[in-house]
Amino acid sequence: MDIRGRRQSSNIEDRRGMRPVRTGIGLSIGGLLFLGLLTLLGINPLPFLGLATKAPEVQMQQSAEPYQESAQEAQYRETIAVVLADTEDTWSALLPKYGVQYVAPKLVLFDGLVQSACGTAEAAMGPFYCPLDQKVYVDTSFFNDLNQRFGAPGDFAQAYVIAHEVGHHVQNLVGTAEKVRAAQERSSQADANALSVRMELQADCYAGVWGRTAAQSRQLLEAGDVEEGLRAATAIGDDRLQKMTQGRVVPDAFTHGSSEQRVRWFRRGLETGDPAACDTFAAREL
């Protein structure tokens, strides 16, 4: 991506260097490790984060020593700031056409452990969006994993991840997220997982909508960027992650969609640039 001289978002909250000072009523360290294991197994950890409560779980405090940012982390931060700013431009222009005013989310940078309104999370869970505080949470070490462990390097692969989480924010603003959560509460585990897959694939499609707009309106993309994004979508499909972690694929346990599905919906957003084309809930086949 060509990020030189681009606007960087001011909606970034840097909590790197913050550490827990005591455990409250929330998750123990063992509980955090359990959530990390769920993620590795391809199981969506957010239902286990206590979304129904805003009670604090871990007291976080800035360490005495300032956080020392590496050159690689500085590069990640710059990419994140530019991509977040560009998603703000994209959705501020698109959503009013559907009668919704776009309110930009905050993006929280953390390292290791973070407290959100949805609960306490650790880096092993990967980036996530919390609808209760309307914030995206990112530990940039995930981008190292994306490159080294999952074989999906490149700045547009990182951009795809950010745009996907912002897609969840869009779902929250338009009311989709609340409807899905209510439906999941009335559903079996298998049906709840299926609804989660549709949510995640729609967020993939919204990420593609952003990519199309960024390329056409602001010439942000460069040659090879789309391929980077498609590799990232392939790398984090449920089937591939399950195969890596448990040696077998269990479709009923999918919460994000297969590699093929994630690529298909991301590509649909890229090709159409139209949020209306991202209605995964009306699609008979994903």
Write a structural description.
With 286 residues, the chain is α/β, with parallel strands linked by helices. The protein has a domain at 71-107 and 123-278. The chain is built from nine helices and eight strands. The strands form three sheets. It has a four-stranded mixed beta sheet, with helices on one face. The chain has a two-stranded antiparallel sheet with strand order 2-3. Strand 7 (128-130) and strand 8 form a beta hairpin.
In short:
This protein is α/β, with parallel strands linked by helices. It has helices at residues 29-40, 71-94, 141-148, 155-174, 176-185, 189-218, 225-235, 238-246, 259-272, and strands at 12-14, 18-23, 58-62, 106-109, 113-116, 119-122, 128-130, 135-138. Residues 24-44 and 46-56 have low confidence and may be disordered.
Q: Over the alpha carbons, how many angstroms does the gyration radius reach?
A: 18 Å
Shape: globular
User: Order of strands across the widest beta sheet?
Assistant: 1-4-8-7
Largest β-sheet summary? 4 strands, mixed
| Overall pLDDT level | 87
* Derived structural class: alpha/beta
Q: What separation lies between the terminal Cα atoms? A: 29 Å
Helix content: 40-55%
Query: What is the N-to-C succession of helices and strands?
Result: EEHEHEEEEEHHHHHHH
Task: Give the DSSP E fraction (strand runs of 2 or more residues).
Answer: 5-15%
Low-confidence stretches: 24-44, 46-56
Give the strand tally: 8
The number of helices is: 9
Structural key phrases:
4-stranded mixed beta sheet
Annotate the secondary structure layout.
Elements: E1 12-14, E2 18-23, H1 29-40, E3 58-62, H2 71-94, E4 106-109, E5 113-116, E6 119-122, E7 128-130, E8 135-138, H3 141-148, H4 155-174, H5 176-185, H6 189-218, H7 225-235, H8 238-246, H9 259-272
Parallel strand pairs: 1-4, 4-8
Antiparallel strand pairs: 2-3, 5-6, 7-8
Helix pairs in contact: 2-4, 4-6, 4-7, 5-6, 6-9, 7-9
